[in-house]
């Protein structure tokens, strides 16, 4: 009996040690997960977008934090604070919605006939929605009636939901939705080929080498503006 009790006691001790070991491992994993989540939560917009760009082999880019009254400044003042080559190198991203798309076209799964598009244009240019309509009509080989194209500026709440970025902070890098991008041809022709656009926050701007932007984003490049 004494031997049996001794064996039972040893088994109980081992079970106790095993439970403590498992609890310790669980606590360690939980702590690691919490620390990782905390690190992710603390990552800035600049950190997140920089990581995305580097992962896609984009190397020539720069972020610049600007004053909260940036949009009250002249284009010349904005050019100077960013160190842009000219006011023509200052660009913006806008989200368009095709208000005449059929009821079955509700997302961006078809790049050639998407419900939404992001257009990147210069601040110095006048955007022409009609040219985008004509381009998309031609892109679809005239198989879709022109009546099924009507490109309009998407409501601000729709833009924010699709991109994850608010007013004056929209950028086509790291969007929540993979929206097809249209780049105005005038930007592709800029010299030097390094332009500025929104950086994900209203006071954060992103400068990027045009050739690298095109290689990563793979936009449609069309003439969709005038001076």
UniProtKB/TrEMBL annotation:
It comes from the Eukaryota. Residues 87-215 form the YbaK/aminoacyl-tRNA synthetase-associated domain. It comes from Perilla frutescens var. hirtella. One of its GO terms (molecular function) is aminoacyl-tRNA deacylase activity. InterPro entries: YbaK/aa-tRNA-synt-asso_dom_sf (IPR036754), YbaK/aa-tRNA-synth-assoc-dom (IPR007214). Coiled coil: none annotated. This is YbaK/aminoacyl-tRNA synthetase-associated domain-containing protein. CDD domains: YbaK_like. Gene3D superfamilies: YbaK/aminoacyl-tRNA synthetase-associated domain (3.90.960.10). SUPFAM superfamilies: YbaK/ProRS associated domain.
């Amino acid at each position: 009996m004494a031997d049996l009790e001794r064996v039972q006691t040893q088994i109980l001790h081992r079970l106790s040690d095993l439970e403590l070991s498992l609890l310790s491992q669980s606590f360690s994993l939980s702590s690691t997960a919490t620390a990782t989540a905390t690190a992710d939560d603390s990552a800035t917009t600049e950190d997140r977008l920089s990581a995305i760009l580097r992962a896609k082999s984009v190397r020539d880019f720069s972020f610049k934090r600007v004053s909260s009254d940036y949009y009250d400044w002249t284009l010349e003042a904005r050019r100077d604070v960013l160190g842009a080559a000219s006011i023509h190198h200052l660009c913006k991203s806008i989200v368009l919605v095709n208000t005449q798309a059929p009821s079955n076209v509700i997302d961006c799964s078809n790049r050639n006939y998407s419900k939404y598009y992001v257009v990147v244009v210069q601040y110095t240019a006048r955007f022409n929605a009609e040219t985008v309509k004509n381009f998309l009509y031609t892109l679809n080989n005239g198989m879709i009636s022109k009546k099924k194209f009507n490109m309009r500026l998407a409501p601000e709440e729709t833009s924010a939901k699709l991109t994850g970025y608010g007013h004056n902070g929209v950028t086509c890098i790291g969007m929540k939705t993979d929206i097809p991008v249209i780049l105005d041809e005038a930007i592709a022709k800029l010299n030097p080929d390094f332009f500025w656009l929104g950086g994900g926050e209203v006071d954060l701007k992103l400068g990027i080498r045009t050739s690298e932007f095109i290689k990563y984003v793979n936009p449609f490049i069309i003439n969709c503006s005038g001076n």
